[in-house]
Design goal:
single chain; 204 residues; mainly beta; Alpha-Beta Plaits; 2 helices; 9 strands
Amino acid sequence: MSVRVRGEYALFTRPENKVERVSYRVMTPSAARGILEAIYWHPQFKWAIREIHVLNPVKTFNILRNEVNSKMSPSTKEPYFSDEDRAQRNSICLRDVDYVIFADANVKEGFDDDHAKHRDQFRRRVEKGQCFHRPSLGCREFAADFGPAAGSPEPVNWSEDLGLTLWDVKYSDVKGEPFWPQFFNAQVESGVLRIPEHPIGVGN
């Protein structure tokens, strides 16, 4: 299954940067999965990203944004004033991004393996522009437009070793337990980023 996604701005934050937000040079698999889940999510399967085609040259820009330093807890009875908790942070973002995402719907154990049903439903939603919520390109304020991948231009002539890149975030099944990022060695070849089935250290 495939879908073309594009937008004016994008920010796929590198997790090693704690304060200043710096984007990867290409969409991450976890961001691609989030876009697909925004279009079509079903409890019977999980999206597995296979390839990401980069259709526009990589362009970056800097933006200075006001952000809050802490979150308001629902259990807190004291009032929270965001004006007193703001900080300016710099972000290095991407501009004019355009991708084609290729993915499989891996049916979970215990459910009927009906790939055709999910494929047809996904295609109909993409063609009609339907989604559960508006997909975004890394940040909620950077909305993504999406549509069928048919007729998309060829990937850009770009090859680069991007090194360790976020594959996904693994969460514990136990409430309150920690979560941790998983990585893979990203290599763009002629504008195509191929995603391994497993991150580093898993399934090898």
